[in-house]
Amino acid sequence: MIDPFVFIVVEDMEEGTDYGPGGLFPVKLGDVLSPEGTVPRYRISAKLGHGSYSTVWLARDLVARRTVAVKIVRASESATSREAAILKRLRGPASDPPAVIQLLDSFTLTSVNGIHHTLVTEPVIPLECLLKLPGIQVNTRSLVRQALKGLAFIHERGIAHGGESPVISNFLSSQPLPDIYPSNIGVVIPDLDSFSEVDIWDKSGPPTIVPLVTYDPAYDVASFPPYLTHALDLGRLLASYVPDFTAREPRVRILDLGCAYFAEETPSPPCHTPLPFTAPEVAFPMMAHGKRDAPWDRRADIWAMGCTICQIAGGGIIFGDFSGANLLDAMAALCGGAPADWTTYFASISDKPRVYTPEASDALWAATVAHLQRWG
Description:
Layout: E1 32-33, E2 42-50, E3 54-61, E4 66-73, H1 75-78, H2 83-89, E5 103-111, E6 114-121, E7 124-126, H3 127-130, H4 140-156, E8 159-160, E9 162-164, E10 168-169, E11 176-178, E12 185-188, H5 197-204, E13 209-211, E14 227-229, H6 234-241, E15 252-254, E16 261-262, H7 280-289, H8 298-314, H9 324-335, H10 340-349, H11 358-375
Antiparallel strand pairs: 1-2, 2-3, 2-10, 3-4, 4-6, 5-6, 7-12, 8-16, 9-11, 12-15, 13-14
Helix pairs in contact: 4-8, 7-9, 8-11
């Protein structure tokens, strides 16, 4: 397909072709969004991220006088989105919110591209972005404890988590991927309300933009924004202008529940999680039989959380170097055994016998932990 737009989009931006019928909502800096029939409410201050399924923006709530995040879902995905309903079930008291991103408002927006589901939440940044900041100090045990409490809260409310992997983002985005992994764990941004819109614009400087100009005069100019813009790096902004930001104890939020589903629903949605975090009951049919619709439930969240804890604590991805049958072999070796259908599969692809024992598993775990601690 020939790109209908004149200028080449730079890295960290969505494509111009993401806009159009069924596509993303065209929005630009300074726009004011609000539910139909209400007073002007959310003024767009900066872009926070994007993915295949949404864009996310930093905005000023002109009514509540606070800074929020606004996530606008692609029109083609909005009709089936459960995210608002999921987040409403996960609401907690404002005085003591759970370690799950909190929904503040939800409504729909209409454009020539369709009807767009819109979520307003507290602003957060992914934990992995926070950990890259120079001088950051974190209590790993506290992070893990908070994340586990957040996952337990999600499960207690009868929900299996469904995450979204950032394609290009420093905040939230929307490439649906079930399970918990590092990009789906965020932290609350302190002191953001102390910055006015002018402060944010002044301290962050003008964003890089790429004008959207099409070769085709018949292309509906109302279907895309006048330009694309880079995302604002909120973490670095706060680290530069809030003196003790990097020394504070992060408050964890589990986020990106676009593919979450209610536990009472059947069947479960297809799994598209990154292989290093995929539970064995999903990985085996995928690797051995090319089956991507294997059922999964909250137990898959627990496996993914375990892999995530290894990454947070050790700095490395425990199954990051494996794929295909090698991934299955690594899982069986670390677990100290494999089900009968795994054994049958291994025998069908290799004459090399595979023997898994608890003793070998213990030794492998010790070596793996040492490796993660050394190279993390």
